Amino acid sequence: MRLWKVLSFLLLLAPLPAMAQVGVYGEFSSTHINAANEPQMYGTTVGAYDDRSVLRHLTFANLGPDFRVTLQSGSSNNGGRGGGPAQSLIIALVGPRLAFNLPVKALHPYVEGLVGGGDSQIGELIGDAYSQNGAGFPPGANKNGGATFEGQFLGGLDLKVHPNVDWRVVEFGYARLVSTGAPGFGLATLSTGIVVHLR
């Protein structure tokens, strides 16, 4: 709820003529963690972008900023005693969004490059007997938690279903997640959602 209040406040600060190019979106996402014994994570992404072109001399593309927050979680046992690894990811990302203008005006493909940070718990043992009994992690388990940096490349396709609403048919992203004192992970995410254009 607090995130929506912040986004609403920021959008109110924008000049009204510019808001015609602002899109606010929500997505459902599934993420595969490229690491041993880690399950899928599921969750939501909310964000906003401004499609005003900084490439005004181009007619086939618009370039503007995108800001998003991703919240995902998952869980797995890994054969642990008294509990198992639990996964969570809270990341804020920002970066440029390049949207392409096609002859079929209902279709809106785009690509983005985002960077940001937050908190991750991937392979963390929650209330587990491994560390308490000095047994260590099970074979193949990963430990990656705390302050996290992420770089992500993604692309997607929006389909206009109403003058002010797009269906985000598909969005695919690949990210590299790095936490302090832990190895990096690759994350592959598939999403779908809804975009509302503010006018």
Brief digest:
The protein has 199 residues and is mainly β.
Entry keywords:
8-stranded antiparallel β-barrel; 8 strands; elongated; disordered N terminus; Porin; 199 residues; single chain; mainly beta
- The CATH class is identified as Mainly Beta
Runs with pLDDT <50, length 5+? 3-20, 78-84, 125-142
Major sheet description = 8 strands, antiparallel, barrel
Task: Give the distance, in angstroms, between the N- and C-terminal Cα atoms.
Answer: 23 Å
Instruction: Quote the beta fraction.
Output: over 45%
Mean pLDDT level: 77
Q: Give the number of domains.
A: 1
Q: Could you estimate the helical fraction of the residues in percent? A: under 10%
Integer-rounded radius of gyration = 19 Å
Strand arrangement, largest sheet? 1-2-3-4-5-6-7-8
CATH fold-level label: Porin
Please identify, by name, the CATH architecture. Beta Barrel
Provide the structure class. mainly beta
Give the SSE string. Answer: HEEEEEHEEE
Counting DSSP E segments of at least 2 residues, the number of strands comes to: 8
Question: What is the global morphology?
Answer: elongated
Number of helices: 2
